[in-house]
Amino acid sequence: MPAIPGAILVLYESDTVRRTLRGCLVPEGLDVIEASSLREVDDAADRGGISLLVLDVQRPTTDGVALAADLRLRPGFETIPIVLLTPDWRARDRGFAAAAGVTTCLVKPVAPAVVKQAVLELLGMA
Questions:
Q1: Predicted pLDDT of residue 15
Q2: Dihedral sign from CA coordinates of 46, 47, 48, 54
């Protein structure tokens, strides 16, 4: 079994969604950091130890694709997997997301078990 990686950072406005994702990832031995704002992401990024990011494409101040591109420029975020949750996913969007550094995209509504499976696969734990 692979070593347990660093923390999973979940950036999502909804407390319910963050808690639900935490609830399906923690039993897998993963540490989950919840963030509802860019400030909380900055704080987590400054502390380091992030192995994977799950974020919502629909952000109040910036969309998730733009945020992924910005995060890719930060030390420690250059290569970590980024999972983007989005309500729509057309071919054009895939190109923009890939160029921004998004690793995989899951179309909402998405079952927490599907998110968990994607996270485990990206971390080499599935």
A1: 92
A2: negative
Q: What is the pLDDT of residue 83?
A: 96
Helix boundaries (H) for the chain: 15-25, 38-47, 64-72, 91-100, 112-122
What confidence category does residue 3 fall into, taking pLDDT thresholds of 50, 70 and 90? low
> How many Cα neighbours within 13 Å face the side chain of 40?
12
| Cβ(125)–Cβ(3) below 8 Å | no
Tell me what the mean pLDDT of segment 69-95 comes to: 85
**Prediction pTM value:** 0.90
DSSP tag of 27: G
Q: Locate the domains of the chain by residue range.
A: 7-122
CB atoms closer than 10 angstroms to residue 63: 18
Task: Determine the Cα–Cα distance for residues 61 and 30; give it in Å rounded to an integer.
Answer: 29
Write down the CATH number for the domain with range 7-122: 3.40.50.2300
pLDDT of residue 1: 46
Q: Are 32 and 10 in contact (CB under 8 A)?
A: yes
